[in-house]
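The instructor's notes for this session suggest beginning with a concrete chain rather than abstract definitions. Hand out the sequence below and ask the class to guess, before any prediction is shown, which regions might be ordered.
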Amino acid sequence: MDFNEVMNELEGLGKERTKKIYLSNGAHEPLFGVATGAMKPIVKKIKIDQSLAEELYATGNYDAMYFAGIIADPKAMTKEDFNRWIDDAYFYMLSDYVVAVTLSESPIAQEVADEWIASGDDLRMSAGWSCYCWLLGNRKDDEFVTSKLSAMLDQVKADIYDAPIRTKISMNNFLYTVAISYIPLSEKAAEVAEEIGAIEIKRENKKNSVLHAHENIQKDLDKGRLGFKRKYVRC
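After discussion, reveal the predicted structure:
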């Protein structure tokens, strides 16, 4: 399938209700409102096509950008490519669920994520922490350096209260993911989460919410989910 065929397919799959949900979460025009599950038949036809992914991502259309992440070839993407993608990721559903996910399947994932975490930019930092969540939830424990992840837990403990909203949320997710998916630091992550306690998230024009990493960790540990790993990261 070529660019025009994919765009026509996506447009035909768009639903007004889904579009409104995406808009309420920070998306803006152009977009069609395609449910992610509805994209799977098109993905099966294309599988991996990096050049097409680049064309689609460059449209600025949220649905096309999301689809680009599914068919991209992370192993063919350079640091410059990922930085270009994160530059165009204008809200968290792109930064954390498209760019970070795609990066997590790249051999340079940790290197790039580390730079984003240190960037000082909310969506970049959020994507960096999210990338580690995708990595830890999929890759074997021996692919990580325990001392490095331990230092990252210390960083979360020190910085989460003053972090910007999206980074705060991704840091909270990191605590949970380490506790559940990375056995060598499960106990430490749970202890840090307990020390941090509840984290309030305040948003303009929306109700405040509260994050409870420790509660969620304990619930899943009680269910025997310690060591959980996903078979796949992308759809």
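Then share the key points. The longest strand covers residues 199-201. Strands lie at 199-201, 209-211.
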